[in-house]
Amino acid sequence: MADQGKPVWIRTVEVRPEREGHDVLGAAKGAFVTIVTWAADADGYRHNAELVIGRLAGLFLVDVLNAAPVDGNRSDGQVAEEIDDLIARARANPDAILWGTFHTCQKDDG
Prior knowledge:
Elements: E1 8-17, E2 30-38, H1 42-55, E3 59-69, H2 70-73, H3 81-91, E4 97-99, E5 103-105
């Protein structure tokens, strides 16, 4: 399924809390999370990622790490089960902006 020629994009994004003790991140200084969404280009991907992260009150997007269309991103055909599920769900819903597990970090390197 395609949304007016837009492919499904995937990538990991870095997020940070606006305050300590965030509901999603707890005491963590930040996290990395995979986001899957439809987008025409990297700017559209970033916009959608910012939309969903903004809905998780108190988080902001720091960086998008090399966003790419799903088909161009899967070089070996092996994808973790969670990611495979996100891709399948996104392909079934042209309005999807889906995220996986938040992998938290305790050190503030930024």
